[in-house]
Amino acid sequence: MKQIALAVTTVISLFGTNAVAADLAARPYAKAPVMVDPGYNWSGFYVGGNVGYSWGRERDDGTLSGVSSAQVFRTAGPTPVGAPVVTALGAVPVWGRSNVDGVIGGGQFGYNWQQSNWLVGLEADLQASDEKTSGTICVAVGCPAGSALFPANYKLDWFGTVRGRVGWLASPRILLYATGGLAYGHLDASAPAAGIGWGGTNAGWTVGAGGEFAIDRSWSVKVEYLYMDLGSFNGASASATTVTNALNTPGVGFNTVTTTTTTANFGTRFTDNIVRVGVNYRFSGPVVAKY
Q1: What is the dihedral sign for C-alpha 139, 142, 148, 153?
Q2: pLDDT at residue 110 above 90?
Q3: 41: three-class secondary structure by DSSP
Q4: Rg over CA atoms, the chain
Q5: Residue (of 173, 190, 204, 184) closest to 280 by Cα position
Q6: Contact in structure between 58 and 272 (CB atoms under 8 Å)
């Protein structure tokens, strides 16, 4: 009896094992899902702020010219003797160089289009500036001793740029880019001793490069360098008249009065080296899963 029960149990065990194996073989193989880190997409609008420092440079260039008129008078008269002798003075250079440095700060906004590992975008910014200095306008290149014409003050009040950006993604969250486009700004220049002021708003160009790191889907930080050339602010002009009286010239009983009028015409060119750090907030930045 025990032998019959053992045989039945063995047969049932064999049939059960074969049925389970057949059932497993009949089921399709399903691979377990792989957990992946979603990639970061830079496309979309963004807005942000920045702060930095600028090393500017102003360059004054032009000419100083004039005319001298000498008239002889009789001392007892005074009665003019003959016609005045008018002499044109040769033109001499007007020259000046000064560093215009200071802190800057402002805001930016733009839009990015990402395609694979490449990015193109547009960005505009507007900056307040504390760049200012005092310099000297001279009548000789290099301002040697005795050539100073008058002191001058310079201040870059504000500037802005409108630039294109072309970037490459070194990793999903690290963007390296080059940038360039339009620059514009307002320079205030004056020479109180000469009673003149010049400058105004002018447009030029800018180029630069930077790097940006995405903290999360919305926030990123950046470091950027720009070289900016605002061109030449023309229209500065200063005139001065001096009168000298030489007694007993050209002889006893005479004196010569000489009137000299000089006019300086020059322009100021402004360039800048800018380093700034900033933060951006990106709108509608989709997350794209990569498998």
Answers
A1: positive
A2: yes
A3: coil
A4: 39
A5: 173
A6: no
CA quadruple 45, 48, 52, 54: dihedral sign: positive
CB burial string 67-100: b at 16+ within 10 A, e below: ebebbbeeeeeeeeeeeeeeeeeeebebbbebeb
> What would the two tokens of residue 176 be?
């390296």
pLDDT band at 30 (very low <50, low <70, confident <90, very high): low
Cα 224 → chain centroid: 10
From 234, 230, 224, select the one nearest 182 (Cα to Cα): 230
Look-up: residue for tokens 């193989």?
29
DSSP assignment, residue 192?
Answer: G
12 by DSSP, 3-state: which?
Answer: helix
Which pLDDT belongs to residue 38?
54
Q: Distance between CA 96 and CA 64 in Å, rounded?
A: 13
Q: How far apart are the first and last CA of the chain?
A: 63
- Cα–Cα distance measured from residue 106 to residue 238, given in angstroms and rounded to the nearest whole number: 35
- The CA distance from 133 to 272, in Å, is 14
